[in-house]
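Re-run requested by the PI after the first attempt was lost when the workstation crashed. Everything re-entered from the original request form. Ligand of interest: manganese (II) ion.
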Amino acid sequence: MLIPRTQFNECGLKANIPKNLSVIPPHSVELTKAKIAAISDIHGQIDIFKTLLAKHAITDKTGNWIFNDGHLVITGDIFDRGDNVTEILWFLFELEQQAELSGGKLHLLLGNHEVMVLTNDLRYLSDKYLHVEKLLNQSMTELYAPTSILGTWLRSKNVVLKLNDMVFLHGGLHPELVDKSLSLADINQLFRLYLSEKSLSEVDKNIAEYLHGIDGPIWYRGYFNEEQPIGFAKLIAHFNVSKFIVGHTSQEQIETRYKDKVIAIDSSIKYGNNGEILLIEGDKFYRGLLNGQKIQLL
Ligand SMILES: [Mn+2]
């Protein structure tokens, strides 16, 4: 049965929190031939987001999952800037369950703006949410506390996901992660424990702080610093991947870098004018445009 939206307040604070909300999602899925779609940096722009999903048959026109056994990956930054953040989260909360029932999967990965709001860095809230804070006399961080449905749900999420030979994440994997001998499972687990303020050994705490920092998976911008050599061979061998699909650093459209090893999918949805979704069918990659057109990228 679907978990309904809360009756209490908009983030589900002080509601009964269903136990399965804390189930840790998979960090790696070996697929056969299911379709994959990926989108990033939605920043509260629900209209563009829902239009892209409907135009590319991920959902029907009313927002219900029709992507069958497909995998939809959201590489972070739903929060901040725009003013329909809560609406997008509840929409995804329901869509995730619909996907599961159809044999598909919605993978919601955290970006730096999710973590900022959860950790009380509220510099980028839209005016609407400043108003909401005043009306409810609670900060956004309090509204997304671990005692709320959405707060619990978000804290269960990963920062990095591997599908087939592709890795998806908000910022990027720094080659230093290889020197630290971290697996994708380690990265997700240590990131999550630190975010949930669980007690960690001194060694793990140091690694978790690194992961939450400027070279960590949600902040790193090294793939966009001109095309300087940055140790992809090392990353590819260690994580056993061949493509790095990342958001965070805004582009006019979905594009590739480093001889197609990097696919940059932050298509500047944040400005509220336009946006794109990456569509992967077998070994073909397409830019899905807002008007429903598909343009082959690779
Ligand atoms: Mn970002």
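Saved to the shared folder this time. The mean pLDDT is 94.
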